[in-house]
Amino acid sequence: MKNTNQEDKLLLLIILTQWIAEQTDIVYSKIASIANQENVNLSNIVKVTIYVTNFDNIESLRATLFKHYGSALPASSLVQVDRLFSPDLKIEVEAIIAVE
C-alpha cells in the first residue's frame, strides 16, 4: 500500500519532532556540563538565542526547553534559518550564563 502525501508529511513531522527533542536534550546537556564546570547550573542562563531549521515542530521544542529550564526562564530569541553547519543539525543554541 502506497503512502499518500499527507501520510508522508505526517511521518516527516514525527521524525523532525523526535530529532528536535533529541538534539535539544544533547545541546542542553552540553550547556549544563559547561555551567557545572563554573559551579552554576542552567538556572544561571540569562539569555539564549536558538536557531532552528523548521518551525513546524515548535511545540516539541518548547516542551523540551521547559523540561530543562524549569521555572528559570531566560530571555530568548528564536530564529528560523535555512540550514546549520551540518545538514543533520536541526537546532543550534547560543547561551549566556551568569557566573560569580
Short description:
The chain contains 2 helices and 3 strands. It has about 100 residues and is an alpha+beta fold.
How are strands sequenced across the largest beta sheet?
Answer: 2-1-3
Helical amount: 40-55%
> Which residues form runs of ≥5 with pLDDT under 50?
none
H/E series: HEHEE
The coarse overall form would be: elongated
The Rg value, from CA coordinates, equals 15 Å
Mean pLDDT: 85
Distance between the termini: 61 Å
Which band does the percent of strand residues land in?
15-25%
Query: Largest beta sheet, briefly?
Result: 3 strands, mixed
Features of this protein?
100 residues; 3-stranded mixed beta sheet; 2 helices; 21% strand; elongated
Strand and helix layout:
Elements: H1 5-37, E1 45-52, H2 58-69, E2 75-80, E3 91-97
Parallel strand pairs: 1-2
Antiparallel strand pairs: 1-3
Helix pairs in contact: 1-2
Task: Please explain how this structure is put together.
The radius of gyration is 15 Å and the shape is elongated. α1 packs parallel to α2. It is of the alpha+beta class and 100 residues long. It has 2 helices and 3 strands. The longest helix has 33 residues, at 5-37. The model has no long low-confidence stretch (mean pLDDT 85). It has a 3-stranded mixed sheet with strand order 2-1-3, with helices on one face. It has helices at 5-37, 58-69, and strands at 45-52, 75-80, 91-97.
